[in-house]
């Protein structure tokens, strides 16, 4: 296939260099966007009188035929083509002759690839947001059925205060809700058209950039042609948002691995999302969660690839920027695959209430509530804190829980203690009384569920 840039060079490109230069294996997935952008460009050329109406119609019809043939399988993308733009234009020229050669008037591959990438990533962003909403729905559903499942909340991986599994899992729902916001914000900033920037300086032809921008669903067009062809901020922003998605998925996966172990036994991951050992028949491994955790590093690496690629580039387009697509495409592919598994893992999760409650009864996680009880009786909180600390230390030596002590034993520490202390340190009451906004109480859980359901629609 003849190169689009043939003419200046006299010698043939080395075969290894030709293969090294080619991006068709990566950018061929953008064939719909490339053809869509070309159809809008052809319509604009005809409207502006740069080509005749008949030529515009023939170009649009020819491009539509190529798309239909690619979709049906009647036409295959030539892997020897330099890129998807070269393939489409060469195929169009083969079908239409000289008319096909007019398509590239007032356009460069620099603005062409930029518009293709933005169109493609816009769709990827929309698909990823839908998957995030599915995961949030799964989280909300699981939270709805576990509002009474009391478990220890942790700090420093030490038992800290009582919460419910619903409160715990909803924390991840909030993370993923923010992820949706970040992706949508990045997609909004991305949604301006570089088409018409040409190679770097615009064109002498009387084009209508507003027309092509509107036709392609953009909110406007890039105001500086140099910026339009050299900007890849949108790739970095999206990759950054995706890296955070994977960070959140990784944290969740880590806890599911821990919580499904024999040592915790808080949850059971269904057999559909676990594997076994080739030598140890008793094993049930949370391999899907482990893989999600591992793939987080891959997406973080994609972000670093993009930042490193851009950091030393002079204006405008440089061939280095061909590397943008492989990184950002991989980030989206990886995130979508992980989200597609995370949602059913969460929705089918079995919560072992008895194990959670048994763990909550150990570790003196109602100690803060005991200190708060004393503070409400007029004892300065710092004094109440130290007194409760002494009680915990003494109980730990005896192997007793706070609620195991008789009232007389409590009163030996302070005469402020009364019989109502047992209600104050009941695990159920500890959770119910955390009514401050965002806390673990049932009313707050209901508010959190309403918020997430509002996001998912």
TrEMBL record:
Pathway: Amino-acid biosynthesis; L-arginine biosynthesis; L-arginine from L-ornithine and carbamoyl phosphate: step 3/3. It catalyses: 2-(N(omega)-L-arginino)succinate = fumarate + L-arginine. Its EC number is 4.3.2.1. It is found in: Cytoplasm. GO terms for molecular function: argininosuccinate lyase activity. GO terms for cellular component: cytosol. Residues 7-301 form the Fumarate lyase N-terminal domain. Keywords: Amino-acid biosynthesis, Arginine biosynthesis, Cytoplasm, Lyase. PROSITE patterns: FUMARATE_LYASES. Pfam families: ASL_C2, Lyase_1. GO terms for biological process: L-arginine biosynthetic process via ornithine. It comes from the Bacteria. Residues 364-432 form the Argininosuccinate lyase C-terminal domain. InterPro entries: Arg_succ_lyase_C, Argininosuccinate_lyase, Fumarase/histidase_N, Fumarate_lyase_CS, Fumarate_lyase_fam, Fumarate_lyase_N, L-Aspartase-like. NCBIfam families: argH. Belongs to the lyase 1 family. Argininosuccinate lyase subfamily. This is Argininosuccinate lyase. It comes from Candidatus Scatomorpha intestinavium.
């Amino acid at each position: 296939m003849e190169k689009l840039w043939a003419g200046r060079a006299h010698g043939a490109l080395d075969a290894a260099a030709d293969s090294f230069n080619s991006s068709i294996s990566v950018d061929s997935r953008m064939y719909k966007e490339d053809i869509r952008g070309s159809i809008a460009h052809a319509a604009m050329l005809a409207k502006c009188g740069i080509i005749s109406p008949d030529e515009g119609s023939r170009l649009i019809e020819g491009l539509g035929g190529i798309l239909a043939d690619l979709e049906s399988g009647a036409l295959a993308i030539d892997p020897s083509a330099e890129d998807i733009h070269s393939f489409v234009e060469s195929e169009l020229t083969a079908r239409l002759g000289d008319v096909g050669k007019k398509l590239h008037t007032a356009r460069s591959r620099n603005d062409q690839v930029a518009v293709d990438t933005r169109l493609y990533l816009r769709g990827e962003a929309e698909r990823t947001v839908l998957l995030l909403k599915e995961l949030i729905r799964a989280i909300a559903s699981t939270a709805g059925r576990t509002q009474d499942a009391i478990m220890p909340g942790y700090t420093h991986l030490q038992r800290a205060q009582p919460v419910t599994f619903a409160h715990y899992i909803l924390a991840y729902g909030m993370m993923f809700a923010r992820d949706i916001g970040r992706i949508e914000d990045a997609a909004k900033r991305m949604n301006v058209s570089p088409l018409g920037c040409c190679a770097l300086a615009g064109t002498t032809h009387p084009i209508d950039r507003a027309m092509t921008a509107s036709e392609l669903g953009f909110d406007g067009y890039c105001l500086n042609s140099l910026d339009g062809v050299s900007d890849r901020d949108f790739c970095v922003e999206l990759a950054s948002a995706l890296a955070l998605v994977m960070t959140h998925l990784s944290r969740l996966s880590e806890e599911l691995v821990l919580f499904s172990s024999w040592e915790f036994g808080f949850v059971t991951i269904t057999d559909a999302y676990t594997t076994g050992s080739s030598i140890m028949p008793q094993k049930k491994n949370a391999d899907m969660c482990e893989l999600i955790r591992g793939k987080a590093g891959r997406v973080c690496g994609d972000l670093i690839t993009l930042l490193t690629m851009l950091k030393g580039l002079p204006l405008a387009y440089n061939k280095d920027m061909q590397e943008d697509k492989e990184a950002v495409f991989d980030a989206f592919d990886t995130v979508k695959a992980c989200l597609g598994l995370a949602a059913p893992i969460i929705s089918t999760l079995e919560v072992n209430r008895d194990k959670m409650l048994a763990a909550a009864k150990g570790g003196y996680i109602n100690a803060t509530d005991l200190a708060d009880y004393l503070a409400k009786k007029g004892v300065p909180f710092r004094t109440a804190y130290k007194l409760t600390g002494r009680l915990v230390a003494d109980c730990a030596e005896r192997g007793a829980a706070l609620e195991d002590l008789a009232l007389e034993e409590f009163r030996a520490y302070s005469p402020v203690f009364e019989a109502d202390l047992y209600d104050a340190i009941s695990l159920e009451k500890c959770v119910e009384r955390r009514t401050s906004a965002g806390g673990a109480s049932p009313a707050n859980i209901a508010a959190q569920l309403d918020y997430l359901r509002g996001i998912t629609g």
